[in-house]
Write a structure and sequence with these properties.
This protein has 189 residues and is mainly α. The protein is built from six helices and no strands.
Length: 189
């Protein structure tokens, strides 16, 4: 690993750690959501720098969409305005530090005490292909096909759930001016 990658790894690691700490330090759900988003984007960057660009991009895309959906639902459905009312993300303030400190110490001890195996064979040219084969083996075509089927199902459900089309407000001959919303309450009624 070169100097640039090492510096980038440390910077992303510190930013991820800072974002994780801010999740418990901030006092509103909206701010916590965006802090967690920043933390997880940095984690995706770390995975990318470590040589798994596909997995890093998947982490970033997945977390951006998850946090965006969380923010939208928070703004739409929370009792307080947009999740900005002060609240606390800290629970079990006495037991949590002991439990998390113990788990952290055990994980660090595991890193140094476990005999790590040496590399056998040569590093694959395409780590993305190697990761895909390790995860999916013979089921890769099935999963790709399933992805397209799920996408078609979502698009079809949206189309079927919508009563009117894009141009219905202009009439059958597309000559209604001003446009009138067939659902009611639009211009021209």
């Amino acid at each position: 690993m070169g100097v640039t990658n090492t510096v980038l790894l440390w910077v992303l690691g510190v930013l991820a750690l800072t974002g994780g700490v801010l999740v418990f330090a901030l006092d509103s759900m909206a701010r916590v959501t965006f802090s967690l988003l920043g933390c997880l984007v940095c984690v995706g960057g770390v995975v990318t720098v470590l040589g798994l660009p596909y997995l890093g991009v998947v982490i970033v895309l997945m977390m951006v969409m998850e946090m965006a959906i969380m923010a939208v639902f928070m703004i739409a459905y929370m009792m307080n305005p947009a999740g900005l009312t002060p609240m606390s993300m800290r629970h079990n303030t006495r037991g949590a530090p002991v439990i998390s400190g113990t788990v952290f110490a055990a994980l660090v001890a595991g890193i140094f005490l476990v005999p790590w195996p040496g590399r056998t064979g040569v590093r694959p040219r395409d780590s993305t292909f190697q990761l895909g084969m390790s995860l999916m083996e013979d089921q890769m075509l099935t999963m790709v096909t399933l992805g397209f089927v799920l996408l078609a199902t979502m698009v079809g459900a949206i189309v079927l759930a919508t009563r009117r089309g894009r141009y219905d407000r202009f009439g059958d001959e597309l000559d209604r001016r001003p446009a009138e919303d067939p659902a009611g309450g639009g211009v021209g009624r």
